[in-house]
Amino acid sequence: MALKNLVLIIDDNQDFQELFGMVAKLAGFEVEAVYDGKAAIERLEGEPIPTFVLLDALLPRVAGAQVLQAARSNQKWARVPIYIVTADLRVIQSAASLAPNDALADGVIEKGAQAIQKLRELFEKYREKSSGGLFLAEQSKGKSSQADPTQ
User: Fold this and answer.
1) Which residues contact 49 (CB under 8 A, 6 or more apart)?
2) Is 56 helix (H, G, I), strand (E, B) or coil?
3) Predicted local distance difference test score (pLDDT) of residue 132
4) What whole-number distance in Å separates Cα of residue 132 and Cα of residue 96?
5) Domain 6-141 CATH class label
6) In the predicted model, is pLDDT for residue 98 greater than 80?
7) Euclidean distance between CA atoms 149 and 145, whole angstroms
8) Per-residue exposure over 71-107, b if at least 16 CB sit within 10 Å of its own CB, e if not
9) Would you place residue 74 in the very low, low, confident or very high pLDDT band (cuts 50, 70, 90)?
C-alpha cells in the first residue's frame, strides 16, 4: 500500500539527497532516502510503497538501471512512477531515443539548474493525484520517457 505523499529518493550524493528532500518537504511530501543500489533493491521488499521515486542513474554497488528493472519486475512496485535523475548526458540521450512504451522509467530529469523547477512540477502533479487516489491508474496509461515530467 502506498503512503500518501511519500517520495523515495535514491541517490548516493548527499547534497542532492538534501536538495531534493527539501523541495519535496516544501511541497508537502514525506521523504525516505536510500544511498546505494543494493539498499534500494532491498527496499523493494519493504513498506510503505512510495507515491513516486527519484532514482539516480549512477549508484554504488548496483546501477540505477538494475534497480529500475527490479522495481518493474516486482508486482507491488511495477506501477510506481519512477523518474531517473542524472547528470550523465548519455543516460538522457538514450532515454530520449526510446519510444514511450519501451522505457521502464516514467521520465528523466537532468541534474542542474532546471531540475528544481521540474521537481516542483512533479511534486505538484503527484500531490494532486495521490490525494485523489487515482495516480497509479492514470500513470499507467500515460508513461513517457520524456524529460518533461508534465507530459
Assistant:
1) 1, 2, 3, 76, 77, 80
2) strand
3) 45
4) 30
5) alpha beta
6) no
7) 9
8) beeeeebebbbbbbbbebeebbeebeeeeeeebbbbb
9) very high
| H helix and E strand count, the chain | 6, 5
Contact 1, 48 (CB under 8 A): yes
pTM of the model: 0.76
Contacts of 46 by beta carbon, 8 Å cutoff, 6+ apart? none
- Side chain identity at residue 102, one-letter code: D
Instruction: Kindly state the cell numbers that stand for 8.
Output: 523515495
Q: How far is 24 from 37, CA to CA, in rounded Å?
A: 21
Distance CA 63, CA 147 (A): 20
Phi, psi (rounded to 5 degrees) for 45: -85, -10
Q: What is the mean pLDDT of residues 77-100?
A: 70
User: What's the average model confidence in pLDDT over 12-33?
Assistant: 93
pLDDT, averaged across the chain:
78
For the chain, first and last CA: distance in Å?
25
CA dihedral in degrees (97, 99, 104, 107; nearest 10)? 70
